[in-house]
């Protein structure tokens, strides 16, 4: 098996389960000697495969995409023939749930006022267990173009004191240590107002 790795980690950003592409190379002599006609891919929630979650045979030349649910799933790939099966290859896939951050504070359209010194505004959000850090962005437009503040933090909170009068928009972008082909799910965009 050339892909996936025997211990793969994937991120799930939406309701759609991530997929892994399986590629294999079986020695031509081995195929001829054993009359292998297909490859069987099985998945299970336990490493002993006592309960098979799914199984499907594929042509030797296929590179199928297999979907994986959140949590840990074990896979087994076996060359098959009418007379006997080949030696199986094993692996495991762990899928981490990565929902978008929730932004409780400041609440939508919160108003802050000040006389001389701009207020210190506490930003609080609920992230997820897989994110390693967050990028807090604040802009003066709802499209979040050219953010005035872009602050990386390992916490689920930050305080900002450098904003003046106006309507401000904010969002939080989670960062992950596990690479993904998909972009992380960004939080909703919220607004607040500062007046002097």
Largest sheet: 5 strands, mixed
The sequence of SSEs as H and E is: EEHEEEEEEEEEEEEE
Beta-strand share of residues? over 45%
Report the helical percentage: under 10%
Total number of β-strand segments?
A: 15
Q: Unreliable stretches, pLDDT < 50, 5 or more residues?
A: none
Instruction: Give the terminus-to-terminus CA distance.
Output: 65 Å
By DSSP (H or I, 4+ residues per run), the number of helices equals 1
C-alpha Rg (nearest Å): 25 Å
Mean pLDDT reading? 92
Shape: rod-shaped
Structural class: mainly beta
Q: Give the strand order, joined by hyphens, for the main sheet.
A: 1-7-6-3-4
Briefly, what is this?
This protein has 196 residues and is mainly β. It contains 1 helix and 15 strands, in the order ββαβββββββββββββ. The termini are far apart.
